[in-house]
Amino acid sequence: LSKFWSSRIKNSAAYVPGEQINDGTYIKLNTNENPYPPSREVLDTIRSFDSTRLNLYPDFSCHKLKSALAQKYGLNKNEIFISNGSDEALAFSFLAFFDCGDSICFPSITYSFYKVYADFFNINYTETKLTESFEVDLSVFDGNYKGVVFANPNAPTGKSVSFAKIKSFLERNPEKLVIVDEAYVDFGGQSVVPLIHKHDNLLVTQTFSKSRALAGLRVGFAMGNINLINALEQVKNSINSYTLDTIALESACASLRDDSHFKTAVSKIINTRTEVSEKLRLLGFMVIESKANFVFISHPGFSAENLYSGLKEKHVLVRHFNSPDIQNFLRVSIGTHEQMSLFLNLINELTIKL
Ligand SMILES: *Cc1c(COP(=O)(O)O)cnc(C)c1O
Questions:
Q1: pTM to 2 decimal places
Q2: Residue 222 CA, ligand 1 centroid: distance in Å
């Protein structure tokens, strides 16, 4: 601890991202990146970008990208907030909608950033259990909280909650802010964006990092009632008006223009996920049914930690979480068909040897 630190820094713990060993010798199945390159439209946009324009600030209103997203999702431009990755939209939401001492609720097994934000901003939080089948249990969110946040599909389980269940939750809880993190929705979940016009308490976040293969570009967005979006804009404009650079804004627009590349990459990942899930089950793994670009797996006969180390020795990285509830699970991102064949061969060897 340093005498210069604020109590906020002294009393909080930061998020720990999955290992980023990018020396090219590892197969990275640990941070849910898309294994395929982004659309050619994006690559062409970046290649042909006139860098002499970099003397100018980017468009802080993100007009073009908002219009493109508004058209895609059937929303109004002012129902969209653009952020530097959706993590930023989520962090800003905690600041925009909760005071110190307010309470927020989220599942105990979910994206670990929610707890980090709650700690950092001094918001009380309650963590709730998943159901027996690893589903987010919305009925326990009915309690007396100012807001709730959950990922759908959830991370790291990959399991999704139905549209009908979220709709009914919103109908029961009109006074509660409901944040649905749809980082993985394009891989088979059902988006609740169509409910935004009926529910002024619903905020949905999405990202270009996963399904659009642009994790390195840092573009995310939130969608919701104009009053919610205005609050997010106020947070942004009280911290940094230019959170997205010009190249990122233009490349994100280019990515939206290429729907066929997007659909092809997503469907390849879904097919590989189905195949990998089946093969892992044949090897005796419990595989939670995933609607995301990863699978969450556990084997009754082998320790997840040992499997993680065995794979790492062979230069395949997967994610192991050292938290008691999920200690015997591994989260494995879906890579290309070739990467997953190699992964399956190694897992096969390890479950014979260990
Ligand atoms: C990856 C991820 C995000 C956000 O990622 P960004 O790159 O910041 O857009 C948000 N929520 C969950 C659950 C994620 O896994």
A1: 0.96
A2: 12
